[in-house]
């Protein structure tokens, strides 16, 4: 059986919970009989020095080392992989590896697995054991005799109930990495997935791993995971990390009924598209413990909403905010600025919406200046014209400050206003518009603080600001 070591590289933005993708991958490897160990070096107190990481891995003696790649932090990841490649055979995976799979091959990696990898990584481990050929692994990109070979795409996982339960791999994460040594039994991933994929087609969205094909777990399987988090991990507050939680009315009703039936109180938050939320769905979600919804809107200008493929109207968002307010569900509205070709009038429409929505919204997302991730339509259409081809490698990394762990007013002002993409100005907006966006970021913070003060008297639970995921 192969020995696989997974590393989430160090990054300037600490991640305070075990990486859910590693829980899935490790659980799947174990279920197939392979051995697995891991290091979440993005966790605040995990080893971060390259030498320490190499020694940690070498002490375990892996056959292959897997590295998680995200676009924003890929330079830090490649700096580590250059050192790791001297000692180990490397495989890359994750969102960035999925979009530009040939790139890691030029940075010390032997293999790259694209897309969802619960099955693909097991197949790679089987190959290392001599039980499979590289050419037979769907989703694999690799080099053979100096040529990059790209095997066929792997279809999305459709039978999600079949996947090994991710919580079964939690023992592989050291609680001390998260500063939680004293409360090891409460360690839990950032959240759980009741579904994968999103049927919408926003031009800026970088969800290439989970993609546009919506797939979902049975209500019973999700409720069982919620119950385990609640009863065995002491998690009363739970985050659904689905791309789009509320797809399919009947499904949501069944899911909510199952969660409500676990017999212990939980409250949870999710991200949902406004077009999937009506009053009836919201009532069912509330009854099942929904405390907060992160709502993607992004612009309040009707033409811009069409241009970015958001598939929502301003009126619909206002309806959802009103219904949610009546039901005491906290809403965080995501709005972004500095779109390609965004005019002063379009920007002002979004800024005007902030004031209009503030009396009924629960808050607005932190930051929000558009970043053209590779693989998105916004990137493909604009990189040549605006000269930002391959920016994640050719420019200094966008230096976001870490999100605070508690959102007091001072921290809200800092975190909301801190957006390095504004000064980077990908779409070359004129100086007066950049200043206007800066004011808009400050306005989002100010309004969010006012709303929080207004509601704090009867809000039972704090819901993290959107944009933190
Ligand atoms: C939850 C989440 C977070 C949580 C993670 C919490 C946790 N403890 O797990 C938090 C809030 C920390 C977070 C932070 C950030 N996130 Co985030 N996040 C997500 C989200 C919503 C779900 C992630 C998830 O679990 N997906 C489900 C699993 C099944 O998919 P997966 O993670 O991609 O993993 C699969 C494959 O990629 C592959 N795989 C993953 N790793 C590896 C490694 C190897 C070796 C192999 C072989 C395979 C492999 O197999 C996995 C299982 O199928 C995704 C959106 C999405 N749809 O994925 C965004 C997403 C991953 N985040 C994104 C971004 C940009 C960020 C930030 C950089 C935000 C920022 N600052 O601007 C930070 C980075 C923080 C850091 N230091 O890493 C982007 C990444 C885009 C890109 N091209 O890189 C995404 C895609 C959102 C988006 N649409 O833009 N995030
Ligand atoms: S609704 Fe959200 S997840 Fe779906 S395509 Fe748009 S940004 Fe991506």
Structure, described:
This protein is of the alpha/beta class. It has 2 domains: 3-142, Rossmann fold (3-Layer(aba) Sandwich); 191-454, Alpha-Beta Horseshoe (pyruvate-formate lyase- activating enzyme). It contains 17 helices and 13 strands. The chain has helices at 20-31, 50-60, 74-84, 95-99, 102-105, 118-128, 219-232, 249-260, 279-287, 302-307, 314-326, 344-357, 377-386, 391-394, 409-417, 420-424, 431-455, and strands at residues 3-8, 35-40, 64-68, 90-93, 111-113, 140-144, 147-150, 195-196, 215-216, 237-239, 267-272, 290-298, 330-335. It has a 7-stranded mixed sheet with strand order 2-1-3-4-5-6-7, with helices on both faces. Strand 6 (140-144) and strand 7 (147-150) form a beta hairpin. Mean pLDDT is 95; it is low at 459-469. It binds cobalamin and iron/sulfur cluster.
Topology:
Blueprint: E1 3-8, H1 20-31, E2 35-40, H2 50-60, E3 64-68, H3 74-84, E4 90-93, H4 95-99, H5 102-105, E5 111-113, H6 118-128, E6 140-144, E7 147-150, E8 195-196, E9 215-216, H7 219-232, E10 237-239, H8 249-260, E11 267-272, H9 279-287, E12 290-298, H10 302-307, H11 314-326, E13 330-335, H12 344-357, H13 377-386, H14 391-394, H15 409-417, H16 420-424, H17 431-455
Parallel strand pairs: 1-2, 1-3, 3-4, 4-5, 10-11, 11-12, 12-13
Antiparallel strand pairs: 5-6, 6-7, 8-9
Helix pairs in contact: 1-6, 7-8, 8-9, 12-17, 15-17
The structure holds cobalamin and iron/sulfur cluster (SF4).
List keywords for this structure.
2 domains; 7-stranded mixed beta sheet; Rossmann fold; pyruvate-formate lyase- activating enzyme; about 15% strand; alpha/beta; binds iron/sulfur cluster; binds cobalamin; about 475 residues; disordered C terminus; 4-stranded parallel beta sheet
